[in-house]
Amino acid sequence: MNFKDYYLKTPENQKLHFLDAIISENKELQKAFINFISAEKTKTAEISFSKFTEIIKKTHHSYKEKFESVDMENPDWESYTSSSSGYREEWEIYQEASEQEFETIFGEFYDEALNLIIRQKLVELTAMLTGLFQAAQDADVPDPLDSFEDVNTYLADEFDEILINIIEKIMLSAISENTILQASEYFFKYCDKITSEKEQLPAAFEDFFMALAGKTNQPEKLLTDIDSSSTDRKFVPRLVLMLIKMKGNSWEWLQSAVQYYKENNDVAAQLLDYYFEKNRNEFIRLASELFDRQKHHWAKQLSKMVNPDLNQELFVKVFYQLVTDNNLIEDYQKLRPWLTGEMLEKLLSEISNKPFKVSLLAIEKRYEEIKEIVERNPDDWSYTELIRPILAIYPEFCFNHIKQKILRTLKNERGRSTYQRITEWLQTADTIPGFKAENRILARELYNHKPALPALKDELRKGGVV
Predict the structure, then answer these.
(1) 176 phi-psi bin (left φ>0, alpha ψ -120 to 50, beta other)
(2) Residue 94 buriedness (CB in 10 A; 0-12 / 13-18 / 19+)
(3) Quick check: bond before 454 cis, omega within 30?
(4) DSSP for 350-408?
(5) Rounded Cα gap, residues 61 and 138, in angstroms
(6) Count of alpha carbons within 13 Å of 185, Cβ hemisphere only?
(7) Residue 134: how many other CB atoms lie within 10 Å
(8) Is the pTM of this model over 0.85?
């Protein structure tokens, strides 16, 4: 039983008893409780909209200035700590030093953000996050050494990481509904004021507001905030679907999912799940459409849902793609009964992973082709995997091939890792039917090699072949 089910089945008096027991001993929880209750009781706005926009501007200016103060030609070497003791290229050192300065700036913001969450200052936090997002977009940071492919892309990625961490903290916190509703109203109202980022800003904050939406009983209010602004619902499709679902309007949810599934793969996945439960014909139609559009993306998810009885054509296409993508024998075994001879040949021609291709040929008992692969690839790093399926089919060929490979390698290479590979090949040859005695003679000759090779002797002893 998961926590939610357990919690819902627990009597209220037991919940209160648990709360009393932990909160009486935890001063941080006591502060959080006071802040939460105070925010719940306060019906007036935490801050005005003009103050909200002022915080955005102030944060934007402050952090844009901080980002631009990082001198990539002359980083703060006094604070720099190398992540590696080995050799580093000069550009790597300069990049890491600059990254550490940026991380310090983002770290300062994160510490302040946590404090705002504890104090139930969600509206202020939303404004500061908006300002930080814009600062990461607008900062003009010279990069004469080309330490970064694109500095603003790096800053945007760091912002996303900070936002993810903040969302995790929000998910674990009790947040006043009053502050959630106000933050939503102001944020989408602010989206009307900006001339650029019309799509970027709401899209960047979609997960943030989804986390908040899960803590409110007024989803219709958040939907109204979106619709009252110039923000198109397609910019935040997952948030819209979540709010509609919370309202309990299944018809509206379906209409919205159908409208936005092409915009967002998460929405498409939700619609797939819905059709899989409610309408298998529509599921097959949608699954085929999505798969044809993005084979690599949808193969894994669809493999859990399709089967030959549902739709053989779709099943074959999905598992064919899965086999070529992931190279897993279990996927091939599911697909094999439904493959025509022509499709099998096509599949084998598309497999570039030699060990996997050999495994498929072994299943098909096409040993002559495996032998040809071994002959063409005597120095392949996967040599043992390539030759193993035919050890009992062509024992004399395999022993001679391994023997020549060992002698050639020992003639041209030295070192512990070389001797370990030679021992591995001898261990493989030890399993060839009828050639164990000859293999042990070969191992003994190697052991007594002149000049003496102590490391080779050690590896042969440890490998149990002498």
Answers:
(1) beta
(2) buried
(3) no
(4) H---HHHHHHHHHHTT-HHHHHHHHHH-TT-TTHHHHHGGGTTTSHHHHHHHHHHHHHH
(5) 10
(6) 15
(7) 23
(8) no
Report residue 215: phi and psi, to 5°: -115, 15
333's CB contacts (< 8 A; 6+ apart) are 363
* Cα atoms in the 13 Å half-sphere on the side-chain side of 229: 25
CA distance 231 to 223: 11
pLDDT digits (tens, 9 = 90+) for 42-62: 555 579 999 999 999 999 999
Cα 154 to Cα 136: distance, rounded to the nearest angstrom: 9
Residue 155: its H or E element: helix 151-171
What sign for the dihedral angle of Cα 162, 166, 171, 177?
Answer: negative
C-alpha span between 264 and 10 (Å, rounded):
38
Distance of alpha carbon 446 from alpha carbon 441, whole angstroms: 9
Axis crossing angle, helix 416-429 with helix 454-462, rounded to the nearest 10:
40
**For residue 79, what pLDDT is reported?**
84
Q: Would you place residue 40 in the very low, low, confident or very high pLDDT band (cuts 50, 70, 90)?
A: very low
Confidence of residue 432 (pLDDT cuts 50, 70, 90): very high
Given pLDDT bands bounded at 50, 70 and 90, which one contains residue 39?
very low
Summarised one tens digit per residue, pLDDT across range 205-224 is: 999 999 999 999 999 999 99
